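From the thread on structure requests for the teaching lab: each student submitted one protein with a one-line request. Submission from student K.M.:

"Model Mannosyltransferase from Anaeramoeba flamelloides, tokens only."
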Amino acid sequence: MAFLMLEILPFSWTIIIRLFTIFSPGYIHPDEYFQNPEIVASDVFKFTAHRAWEFQPEWSCRSAAIPYLTTGIAYLPLRLIESVIGLNLVNAETMILLPRLIMFIYSLLIDLAIMKICKRMGISASGALSWISCSWIVLFFTRTFSNTIEAIILAVALMVATERSSLSTTNGKGNKIFKLGIIFTIGIFTRFTFTIFFLPIVVLLFLECIRYSTSFKTFLINLFYTALEAFVGILISSFFLILFDSFYFGSLKLQQLDLENDDYSYINLKMFFMILLQPSAWKNLKLSGNLTFSVLNSFLYNLDPANLAEHGTHPRYLHVLVNYPLLFGPIAIVTFYFFFKYLLFSLPKSIKQILNDSKKRSIFHILIKSLKSNLENGNGNGNGNGNGNRNGNHKKKETDFKKEKKDGKKGKEDQKNKMKMKNKKLTKTKKKIIKCNKSNEVPSNCIYYLTIGVLISGLFFLSIAPHQEPRFLLPLVTPLALFVGKQIDNEKNKKRKSKIFYILFIIWIIFNLLVGSFYGIFHQGGVLRSLLYLQSDSSIYQTYKLKNENENPNSGYLDPNQPLDYPSPNKDGVIFVTSNITTNYIFFHTYMPPRTFLALRPVSYILDSTEYYNIVNVFDLGGMPIENLSLLTNSLEMDVIPNEIVKKFSYEKFEPISGKQITYLIVPSDVKLPPINNAILIKSLPFHVNMESDFDNVIDLFTQKLLIYKIEKEKI
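Reply posted by the TA:
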């Protein structure tokens, strides 16, 4: 029954399940928002935001190009529609869902890579795709984690790496190495740890140089041209990414010569595009400043143990014993089983065989011969040519044997003649060309060992680092899917099915239902929904124009009882309101709230020749003690927030309180609040689990809610 379900589960279901996760309210980790949407939204819409330290110019430890290649594709069209057409589509819903939709589209590259690689391995892709569709990992596929982007890039890299070799004379892929150079660059600009996952691909390219070499000289030449082509791809792509980061962080600036004053002035992005359309003005441009190497900055930062200690240090075994099983469940145990089985049985046999043969010949000669033989033959489960026939070699050998037996001596003579002709062609090839005319497909066994190599390389090197989080292992999803697909394919070919497989299948389904529901629905599930509610309900959006349009020529008449859905400045960037408003948001015992989903722009207005501001303060208290909440709420009753309060709770600079004051307190239901004057419960959001809370049993844990209180105060 389990095999039947895996077979009939169509690819469309994998898409439907993943598309559904776009709407999941679960909050997995703050980095999903603060290293991507929060940055782009603050740039594009000029929203009030908390900029992560990595994107501060003084640190510049992450490339700004990566968020713009993901969330930027979603937000820039919204900004264009708002500016050109005047249609406002910017709200919390679109800002949350559109980046997830973009990531969903990008994640289809993982499925495409798996289908292509499975075909080259000579196995069915249904098992691997079904495994992914049933995994709770699909939650990450629609989230803007840098780890998700890294996983997508690795899948594309594996797909390109298993293409026909560019060293083959038979329809070789001439731009394969160049493409891998570009992919590698984008990968390390996403996360420098991409190098760890890419290392086995480098080994594969090295082995291809051996396979398609007819002598040591041709090997060196092939190796040189492979390295050169990869270097060109890396150089070109790095140039554009470094240039983007340098302009973004302000270390490199473009200046235009002012002919009237004979001096240079800085130009903005709009002026830059206008100058691009005027080639005659290019001669008046000048670059000043330095280049920003965000990848190098990130690498150097992580080399310092003191820096890593600020983010938390973990035991070296955490990835292997905790994070890997947490992400992949029982499949992690299966991979450990096959790995130890290889170490205990297969590897000793291979070493013993090499040692026995070394008595007659050198070990180096035996290794090279064995390596080239494996590269040319395949592994018995694929045909070595990637044509999808799982038993191709076996059938071919069986057919040749029957034909030879039938023809007798004639068949043997024909075979000898063919060998002579082949030797003559090989001799000519050695003299004329470097590339040798072998099968241009990457052998199926090489692809299989490549996936195993990525798994081992990723787990081993990431386990060396002192800071370890489960999502760091997310790029392993593609090689692990290929590994699982091969095991499922092997199991289907057995006449007698293993009972262990059925047990693992049931455990796998239960595991993913539980973990997927927890992180997709319950885990901090009220935070995003509270932002959706506050964005549509808060008084910050109830900004009115003046009743009498004669008070200011730029203001029009609008009923003050009808609030605007969104602050819309006039052509002078001014919004007219009837009173000064300060809105405070206090988040207590929750994950960090993404500020940009409140869609807050700096608002100012002029009344009776006096300029006023619509002030917004966001206080993120995190898991602080309850005494700190009392201290803050009591301070908000005063006219001005004391400096010690600002320093204690501040990520940003807070404005003084004046005029009408409205405070929203967002807190889990299990928190026992101190007495707060004028606090009214206005919203209760179910399905909010806070793992940092104290709870007696599982029932209490899953009955938690996120509560929103409103505290109003009018200054006289």
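TA comment: Residues 252-289 form one domain. Strands lie at 252-258, 263-266, 285-289, 581-588, 603-607, 610-622, 660-668, 679-685, 706-714.
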